[in-house]
Design goal:
Layout lengths: L1 H12 L12 H4 L1 H15 L5 H14 L5 H11 L9 H15 L19 H22 L7 H14 L3 H9 L3 H24 L13
């Protein structure tokens, strides 16, 4: 209860711009810290989803609503989850959403976008499940802002891949886990998904699609 009151107090006295952490913060650089931060957010928001899905939805929303200022994008995301400004987790949600703007970093030479997934210490099945739910959330977020059909053909193919991953059932996840090279398959799948958000974002803010859109996984 004391922590909830602390966040409510902050919400009354801190502007959104004050929430943006430095780009080299530990939360960006360490996968476990990144996952823990979104797990804490899930708890505060009392949402029946995993951290990976919540991050996927937030990231998809950030990209698909790129024609709006960040504050407007966050308002739509908060509305989607029915999180009002008086909610004790509202400010923490805003902080994590603003962190996406830093993580997507157009100035960086890296084309990868760090995802919120369990670390490699966790069971492989849990990691495959997290990738599935991240994909479900990402498509949810994309659809908050625009139809998939407005993207280029290459982008639509990538989104179709994400949709297929999100549609995996338990038996398919179990089958992927039991493959001889399952660890390698997981790493390649996670890397492929890390490539998609930044390319979609670049396409969303530019007239022409970026060159070298990541190849699909078919």
């Amino acid at each position: 209860m004391l922590l909830m009151l602390f966040y409510l107090t902050l919400a009354r006295n801190v502007s959104m711009s004050d929430l943006i952490p430095p780009h080299d913060s530990f939360e960006y650089l360490d996968p476990q810290a990144r996952y823990d931060a979104w797990m804490k957010l899930v708890v505060f928001l009392n949402q029946p989803i995993c951290p990976s899905q919540l991050h996927g939805t937030a990231l998809g929303c950030f990209i698909s609503l790129s024609d709006q200022v960040v504050e407007q994008r966050f308002e739509q995301l908060a509305d989607f989850f029915e999180i009002t400004p008086d909610h004790p987790g509202y400010l923490l949600f805003a902080k994590q959403f603003y962190a996406i703007e830093q993580a997507i970093d157009l100035e960086s030479e890296s084309i990868c976008m760090p995802l919120v997934l369990p670390t490699d210490d966790e069971p492989l099945r849990d990691r495959f499940e997290a990738i599935k739910w991240w994909s479900v959330g990402f498509i949810e977020g994309i659809r908050l802002g625009r139809d998939v059909e407005v993207y280029s053909e290459q982008a639509q193919e990538a989104l179709e891949d994400v949709l297929d991953i999100g549609a995996l059932d338990s038996s398919e996840v179990e089958e992927m886990e039991s493959e001889p090279e399952a660890e390698k398959d997981y790493a390649e799948l996670a890397h492929y998904l890390e490539l998609i958000p930044k390319f979609l974002y670049l396409e969303s803010i530019q007239t022409d699609a970026p060159e070298g859109f990541p190849e699909g996984i078919h």
